[in-house]
What does this fold into?
Amino acid sequence: MRSIPRMAAAVAALALAAACGSTETAAPAAPAPGVSGFTPPKIDALASLGAGEGQVNLVAWAGYVEDGSTDPKVDWVTEFESSTGCQVNTKTAGTSDEMVNLMKTGEYDAVSASGDASLRLIAAGDVAPVNTSLIPNYADVFPGLKDKPWNSVGGVSYGVPHGRGANLLMWRTDTVNPAPDSWGVVFDPASPYKGKVTAYDSPIYIADAAVYLMSTKPELGIKNPYALDDTQFQAAVDLLKQQRTIIGEYWSDYTKEIQAFKSGDSVVGTTWQVIANLATAEKAPIEVTLPKEGATGWSDTWMVAAAAKHPNCAYRWLDWIISPKANAQVAEWFGEAPSNSKSCAETADPKHCDTFHATDEDYFSKVYYWTTPIPQCLDGRTDVTCKDYAEWTRAWTEIKG
Amino acid sequence: MRRRLATFLHRHARVRLSLLLSAPLAWLGLAYLGALAALLVTAFWSTDTFTGNLIRTFTWANFEDLVTGEVYRTIALRSLGVAAAVTLIDLVVAFPMAFAMAKLASPRAQRWLVIAVLTPLWASYLVKAYAWRVLLSADGLLGWGYGLGATILTLSYLWLPYMILPIYAGLERLPNSLLDAAGDLGARGWRTFRTVVWPLAFPAVVAGSIFTFSLSLGDYITVKIVGGRSQLIGNVVYDNIGAANNLPFAAAVATVPVLIMLVYLAAVRRTGALENL
It folds into this structure.
């Protein structure tokens, strides 16, 4: 049984997760590196670390920069300020678009960008490459998170990985039998759970259908669930239209899903690990799994502004936020897998890394991190045009009818 | 000095009037109509999918999509139906309530009833919507489940005070002597209602219906909470701004409820109800 403050913390963390989760799908991104040949503007990374400038201005997701003002026990900023002398000023952004726009003002030094904002920032020259040799803790970051399409271009790193998570399949153990191991249970039109199936209410959920089609209809040739041409896209949309007939409700609000699973209004559907934890804490008989087809997920990156006025403090912040202790704190508060391999020894809940599969590369190899679809196919095809996010949004409206 | 200013203003009626009206006119013109105009202009632009920036060149594309897309017609009609249903339910519930408040209750009880009607407005919209979600949940008190019906029910509850109060105010202005006269002339209850009360209270009913109708037409949160898998116009607007960053298309969609309201107000005006407000 959790204590009240911990419950409060968990609820707040969920709120944050919900806030960010729904917004990480927000904006159109630049093409993946090497795919449609975009070359980032030539900007030099910081060559050597100098004295701190006395302050640093951050743009972050809610819950990523906590100085104890939300909850006195949740604080990894005060120690940073006293040890580096860098005063932290945070601007919390609600969406990826907001982050991109804030970074364009030139007022900020660093940003916690999601996969759908990071490449836009790189392509626009708003962020500079990061000299990882100036960030000692970078060495301990999980190799599976380094040099990825959403944080590096042409082998040049543009940031440090913050944390990651997957969208899972959740079901009520008392009604759903046998335990599902496939997304098929939420897509089968003859499902015995008709009217009690739930799905994530965002156009990005089309990617979940695409992930399912990757293994059930290999003839469609889907390589990347965010790069869908006309035929593939139509197949995903048709699948979701068919799914609508068995949907009870769509969720985008975490409290809504917890309550629906507790009351039995929903018995099976997509979820996040944090939601599952909280539902379990509220005694809902639920289980989660990463289905055999794989799943969608998210992975965030801390980046430094090209025009940073306080680059030295920004670098110190990047090093701090991925340091074992601070990274463990933020991962637990937010409810995700930390990026630093040594963080697992620092979490208050010793099982945190197991719960969130932090060390399980096999688990994350089946996770397709959220990326915003663009006309240039992200899987490298140049002979077709892929559907961009505006079209995904319209299709989503049509799917819901 | 003050005296001279007073004399000046006294002699120049136009200056006096313009000083008096400048603040409300600025509000109406800039903050209200200005925002609507900006909305209309944005609807003719488009967005660059790569950078997310607005492209400020004229295009009909958004409206073409809106008119040709069958799904938008369905959603607009559904929203219209929901708004009409909410207005009708609120009217049926509110009229007897307002009549009882204005004509039957003692002055003391009247005050308390007004407070009772207003009390739900003090609670947060979200709290009330979630309370209905709990009520309607499968293991809830009512257990009717979610969907369009649940949305109509919840909206009717949320906007009920906006229907009761105008009707109450209207009925309060209705002299009791008229009711007595109708009775003396031999009219029964129903006839009195049909020929005396209803025609005189009609402008108030219209005022209330404008509130409930327009509030329902623009709602997108209630339907997200208790609507199950259904969506209304507001959700389309929200999804296009919040998720797709497609402000122009959202603006184009948002003109639909504006148009519906203009038609509604024009229709109401023809009945002459607005003059009596």
